[in-house]
């Protein structure tokens, strides 16, 4: 637990937080959201899961289509991604400012969805060389529980790109799987032997003795006084059982009609819009009481419904409580520039009693809940990996389980890919390396700040300390990853004034290389995303690193042209021409800008000068033809048209 908090506080490393049922994953996530001061959003694969954690669904937040999205899908190409995901300015601002995304129940998220998230964040944040565009992702879940839900058609498409559907098989993890922290202490069950058997069912390493222990609960009778919950494999079985049990009661049926306000899809309702209840009906609470009288998943019996519709429920401990309507909120995330933080906006509400009939629920929906007495109905077969483990681990004790039939050895489904992935969990080496990288990056930033203040000795010391911890310049990929965070760097430690002078030369070279990276990012923003404002930000970063970067000045001028900002464009391009009067790209750009803003007389001189440099000759001739056309000089217009034709048809 401390390792997870340390990674979140001190690094930007994405990682997977996992653990057996009952190890406190949800509790830790709640603590993180409350105490970690990062710009964060909480996402989940389903509407109900998102509602339970107070977040949004992945599909709704990212506007991801509900279909397989293989890596070569044309809609995800650099040229088309901005047309596929038509985010407004508010949504783009949020994506750019995010520091942390928490994805709950990641065991149900397909690999292709993870790759789509990666491509969206890289594209819209303008950080193409870092996984997830530099955003830290906390993946939460247990891969030994519920697996990604896919139908045959989806599997047929995606198996050509992925070895399996698990999130860790996404291509963003091809070079290195995400660091994994596994919580190991189980709080739900106290019986060490039962905990051990559950662990074997979790991994598929079930022994004959394990099966004998679990199957000893077949036919065991639970007391009628106990609130027994049946766990079934399908929703149809659950609905049928709940309806039959409700009909068996001779008490009067009362219908409680909920209320939907604003945007709240009916498919995401946590309970029935028209909730049918009777006195003596067994129900489950769907909220947490502020005074902790009950929690989400607590069972009870309807004790009384009065004439005004007031409902009283008796809990397993015998206490009786009046239940009032609860308000569930459907939210969306926004970013406040004024407060510099991610905020939630309520876009819809559902008002209803926080109850549902609960003689039975599906094994799927029981995930994350804890009960004292369960009757497990696996039907004719266990058809999903993790299903047996989820069902068995819902109960606090072996004595609280009633099995409707025995589990057969052939029904234990093992998952080699998951076993292999979990084998690297809780790696001290990777944990230390991640923390070292974070400390080193902090040192590089301090060195950069000192360098900008011309405190060269301090910069050299900071850099030496950082490189002693972790030399990120050994591999080009780390240089590219650091580009988005720091403005200047040096390479080697210095002991004498002569070595320091050599180091400063190397630092200057490195800054020019990093400046060129920002130019590339700016160009990508123009050509791939048509985002001139984002491009200008990258070009400005390049110019801070290297004030003589002509490509950045030219790019900045062209970006201002796209925004129809004449002053901005001409100012940037005049700087470029003043600095490099014989640079063909700069002369062509300023000539083109002068034409664009209606000053052909100014364009003429720049373009004629560019023509003498014999670079991009056809483009220059085309621009000169336009210039003399606008100036009304027929003689020169004809002259340059003939020259242009000659370029296309040389003798």
Automatic annotation (TrEMBL):
TPR repeats lie at residues 550-583. Coiled coil: none annotated. Keywords: TPR repeat. It comes from the Bacteria. Residues 11-321 form the AAA+ ATPase domain. One of its GO terms (biological process) is DNA repair. One of its GO terms (molecular function) is DNA helicase activity. PANTHER family: ATP-DEPENDENT DNA HELICASE. This is AAA+ ATPase domain-containing protein. It comes from Porphyromonas macacae.
């Amino acid at each position: 637990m401390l390792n997870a908090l340390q990674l979140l506080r001190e690094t930007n490393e994405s990682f997977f937080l996992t653990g057996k049922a009952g190890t406190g994953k949800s509790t830790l996530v709640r603590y993180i959201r409350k105490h970690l001061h990062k710009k964060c959003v909480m996402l989940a694969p389903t509407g109900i899961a998102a509602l339970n954690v107070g977040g949004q669904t992945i599909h709704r937040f990212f506007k991801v289509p509900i279909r397989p999205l293989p890596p070569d899908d044309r809609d995800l190409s650099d040229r088309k991604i901005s047309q596929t995901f038509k985010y407004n300015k508010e949504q783009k601002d949020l994506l750019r400012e995010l520091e942390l995304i928490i994805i709950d129940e990641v065991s149900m998220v397909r690999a292709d969805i993870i790759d789509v998230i990666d491509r969206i964040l890289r594209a819209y944040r303008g950080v193409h060389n870092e996984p997830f565009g530099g955003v830290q992702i906390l993946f939460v879940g247990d891969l030994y529980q519920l697996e990604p839900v896919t139908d045959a058609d989806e599997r047929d498409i995606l198996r050509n790109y992925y070895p399996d559907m698990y999130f860790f098989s996404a291509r963003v993890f091809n070079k290195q799987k995400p660091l994994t922290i596994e919580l190991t202490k189980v709080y739900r069950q106290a019986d060490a032997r039962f905990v051990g058997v559950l662990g074997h069912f979790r991994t598929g390493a079930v022994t004959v003795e394990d099966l004998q222990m679990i199957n000893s609960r077949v036919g065991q009778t639970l007391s009628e006084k106990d609130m027994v919950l049946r766990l079934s494999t399908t929703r149809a079985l659950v609905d049928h059982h709940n309806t039959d049990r409700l009909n068996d009661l001779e008490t009067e049926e009362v219908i409680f009609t909920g209320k939907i306000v604003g945007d709240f899809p009916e498919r995401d309702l946590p309970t029935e819009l028209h909730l049918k209840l009777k006195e003596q009906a067994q129900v489950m609470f769907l909220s947490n009481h502020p005074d902790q009288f009950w929690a989400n998943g607590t069972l009870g019996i309807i004790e009384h419904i009065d004439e005004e519709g007031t409902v009283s429920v008796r809990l397993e401990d015998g206490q009786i409580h009046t239940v009032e309507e609860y308000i569930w909120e459907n939210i969306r995330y926004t970013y406040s520039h004024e407060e510099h933080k991610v905020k939630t906006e309520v876009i819809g509400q559902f008002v209803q009693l926080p109850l549902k009939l609960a003689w039975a629920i599906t094994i799927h929906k029981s995930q994350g809940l804890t009960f004292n007495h369960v009757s497990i109905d696996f039907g004719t077969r266990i058809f999903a990996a993790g299903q047996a483990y989820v069902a068995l681990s819902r109960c606090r004790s072996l004595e609280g389980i009633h099995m409707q039939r025995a589990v057969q050895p052939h029904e234990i489904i093992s998952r080699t890919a998951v076993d292999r992935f979990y084998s690297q969990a809780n790696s001290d080496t990777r944990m230390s390396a991640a923390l070292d990288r974070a400390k080193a990056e902090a040192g590089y930033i301090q060195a950069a700040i000192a360098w900008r203040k011309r405190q060269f000795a301090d910069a050299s010391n900071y850099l030496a300390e950082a490189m002693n911890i972790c030399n990120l310049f050994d591999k080009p990929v780390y240089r590219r990853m650091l580009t988005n965070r720091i403005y200047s760097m040096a390479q080697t430690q210095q002991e004498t004034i002569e070595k320091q002078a050599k180091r400063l030369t190397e630092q200057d070279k490195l800054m020019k290389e990093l400046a060129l990276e920002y130019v590339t990012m700016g160009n990508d923003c123009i050509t791939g995303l048509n985002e001139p404002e984002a491009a200008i930000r990258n070009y400005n970063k390049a110019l801070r690193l290297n004030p003589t970067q002509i490509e950045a000045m030219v790019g900045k001028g062209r970006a201002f042209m796209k925004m129809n900002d004449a002053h901005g464009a001409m100012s940037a391009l005049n700087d470029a021409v003043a600095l490099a009067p014989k640079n063909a790209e700069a002369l062509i750009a300023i000539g083109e800008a002068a034409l664009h803003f209606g000053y052909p007389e100014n364009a003429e001189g720049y373009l004629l000068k560019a023509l003498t440099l014999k670079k991009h000759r056809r483009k220059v001739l085309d621009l000169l033809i336009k210039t003399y056309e606008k100036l009304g000089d027929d003689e020169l217009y004809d002259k340059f048209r003939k020259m242009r034709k000659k370029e296309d048809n040389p003798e």
